[in-house]
Amino acid sequence: MKFFAFHLMPYRHLDFDKADAYRSYWVVLPNTHYDPQKGARLYQEYIDQLVFAAKAGFDGICVNEHHQTAYGLMPAPNLIASALIDRTRGMDVKIAVIGRALPIVSNPLTIAEEFAMLDNLSDGRVIAGFVRGIGCEYHSTEVNPIYSHERFHEAHDLIVRAWTEPGPFAFEGEHFNFGYVNTWPRCVQTPHPPIWIPSQGSGETIEWAAAPERKYPVIMAFSPVEAVIRFHESYRRQAETFGYKISGDQLGWSTPTYVAETDEIAARESAEHLEALFNNFFHIPPELLFPPGYTSIRSLQAMLESRKGLAASRVTFNDLMMRGNVLVGSAATVREKIEAIHAKTGFRIMVPMIQFGTLPDDLVKKSTQIFAEEVAPRLRPL
Asked: Which residues make beta-bridge pairs with 95?
């Protein structure tokens, strides 16, 4: 099993009392609630946390993309990835951008170029994650969500061809057209950087990612344990319909994670910060999260099931623990919970979210260190 430390980079200094006057912390929350002086320091704090995880022994460190929200301060994750590459030079650690939202860009070739540059700057340590972006991103960018799937697949195909086919060549699609595709520089990794697909339970995602020509790892995120197990099993069954047996390297699990000396200490230190993540930062009304046409009925049902119980006015730490939305406890407890899911699905990519909500720097590093020293080493042979 391999371990990748994941970070959302939230604006943890947000005044919740003032922000609660708005219907969401996404899209409609005025940016006057952001203090640039505090934000500038947060970027350095968060980059330091990921570098700390790399030095502690994680196999990789991960960032992602969100727009116009206090939930995550990375509208351009390639910039953070570049800083991480420089800070981890000489280290055997992957830099994963999971992921870039392909449908909301007007020129997917810029993403192909960015990742090719990052692959060169890192000497082949980059993992490319591709997503459609959650519904809020379509309000932020004014891209029609009806074409989300079409634009995602077309952008993906263009990027992969740009990485692997000699240029220049022409690309003609329904949404993107280029007379000359001739990406400079070329990727260091061959045929291209690994591609991961984060998901919250979409059936179409499983079917597409599992196709024999792709076999992309799918990382299940923000879901109860039962939903993660069902999702992994769905991927396994889909692979069988394609005529091959799945590898555990195609299955991942990402969840907010906190480890301390005992279960009681872990709960006491993490509870308020986890509640802030789910009750405040992730408060999104349905009309922003699921704009019309964004997803099929089948996938909408699966995603709503994965978010079961989170639509209530408030969720408590005990609610999150009971549903398995978070991974909290002593090193022994956290190991046992990971082992239990591995025994059922065989997944081999673990992506703990090392910082969540308002969790401060000292607790982030404490938990990260314990995970790296007392959890990961015992589970690597799985």
From this structure: 61, 126
